[in-house]
Amino acid sequence: MTLAVSDVVQLQVQDIDISFGGVKALRGVSLEVKKGEIFSVIGPNGAGKTVCLNCINGLYQPQEGKIFFEGKEVTRLKPYQRAKLGISRSFQKIELFKGMTVLDNIRLGRHIHMKTNLLDGVLYLGRTAREEVEHREFIEKEIIDLLEIEHIRDKVVGMLPYGLQKRVELARALALNPKLLILDEPMAGLNLEEVEDMARFILDVNEEERWQVTCLLVEHDMGVVMDISNRVAVLNFGEKIAEGTPPEVQDSPQVIKAYLGEAEDLYVTRR
């Protein structure tokens, strides 16, 4: 696998702390994600992985520390402001509009790129109509084909199997045309074939010339993490205990003790 990873740090998390009700969820966590890489964050349940992602995309604001994206401090920006900069997010729990079609759900991810005002939209004036056509073409050509969901484009999302709903969730995140794609457990609840498909889609988004999106991944499937990641960080009790390439992390005594288990067979069973 060859990824076009640059030496440019695209996302920088500096010593962030956040507490809930006096309980420290993150303690001085720092990360540097390079442009073009797949960077994974792993750790036991409750280690602070999702909290870290929530701080990066703006759902939470850390009480201490700073976050930079492409050299710009974004620590206090709201989620929609970070989205405008190119940070997109999928969620561990599917956050789709179940009564809407697949196409309409994906189109919602494009709203941030709309330049027409509310009155234009209500009256469906010329510029709005042109924009709508352009956005629809982008979705059809770049996303629906990529994720192989042409056959369900007009289906109501709530009627789809869970695995296809996860695919639609990814499609909506891609509709933002992101520079950084944050993925919170995209493999959760999927069968083996669906996991392989999702891993392939993530690699395509990261590697294909049309996309070349940096990916920040939280995932419990260690097989996938070790296969597709360039680098991996490990959290435990809100602290970063290790960071490195997949082989380096696998061989770390701290990681083996805290997360992967004392024996190799335990690592295998957690896949």
What does this protein structure show overall?
The chain has 271 residues and is α/β, with parallel strands linked by helices. The protein folds into two domains: 1-86 and 178-271, Rossmann fold (3-Layer(aba) Sandwich); 100-176, no CATH class. The protein has eleven helices and ten strands. The protein has helices at residues 49-57, 79-85, 102-108, 118-123, 126-144, 162-175, 192-207, 222-228, 246-250, 253-260, 264-269, and strands at residues 9-20, 23-34, 38-42, 64-69, 72-73, 87-90, 180-184, 214-218, 231-236, 239-244. The strands form two sheets. The protein has a six-stranded mixed β-sheet, sandwiched between helices. A four-stranded antiparallel β-sheet has the order 2-1-4-5, covered by helices on one side. Strand 7 (180-184), helix 7 and strand 8 form a beta-alpha-beta unit. The protein is globular. The two termini are 21 Å apart. The model is unreliable at 116-120 and 262-271 (pLDDT under 50).
Per-chain topology:
Blueprint: E1 9-20, E2 23-34, E3 38-42, H1 49-57, E4 64-69, E5 72-73, H2 79-85, E6 87-90, H3 102-108, H4 118-123, H5 126-144, H6 162-175, E7 180-184, H7 192-207, E8 214-218, H8 222-228, E9 231-236, E10 239-244, H9 246-250, H10 253-260, H11 264-269
Parallel strand pairs: 3-8, 3-9, 6-7, 7-8
Antiparallel strand pairs: 1-2, 1-4, 4-5, 9-10
Helix pairs in contact: 3-6
